[in-house]
Amino acid sequence: YGRSILTVPWVELGGSCQITCSKTGYNATIEFLTKPFYGGKKHRVSAEVFCPGQKKAFLTVDGEWNGAMTAKWLEDGHSEAFVDTMSLGTVRKKVRPIAEQQSNESRRLWKECTAGLKFNNIEAATEAKFALEQKQREEAKARKVAGEDWQTKLFSLHGENWIYNTPLITRTAVPAAAAVR
């Protein structure tokens, strides 16, 4: 959400999401809480973590998504520091140069718009954005006329959920032969 548009604007996360570990079945419900109109804090987050097949959480997490969070074990009421995002190091993105990217990759598609924003040329950024969105609308219309569905590359629809085709666990798992050494 965009906030304080009349003074110093800032962006606020709001809403909820559900995360489930496909390997263990543990799951969490995370709620990004918006700041009340009067009082309250910005950037609040709360979460409940559940064992597989359980409806009662065994752990809650509260705090600020851009600051410190505290975990509370519900069985004994014990609280402990969960994470302090301010103390974490920054991990730089690993992105191939635009010239090496495929024609449909985001950074390549949006490079003209990004350049306009970077150099404070809002008119050029707006024109680039409009041109890209118009091109995408025309491509979608052509697919519809041809009776073609959009073909995703990285995600597949399973029921109502989109699942990443190559989950992190399959990309980071140690091969059995290497684990024996």
UniProtKB/TrEMBL annotation:
Domain of life of the source: Eukaryota
GO cellular component: cytosol; Golgi apparatus; membrane
Pfam family of the protein (one): Oxysterol_BP
Recorded GO MF terms: sterol binding
Name used for this protein in its record: Oxysterol-binding protein-related protein 9-like
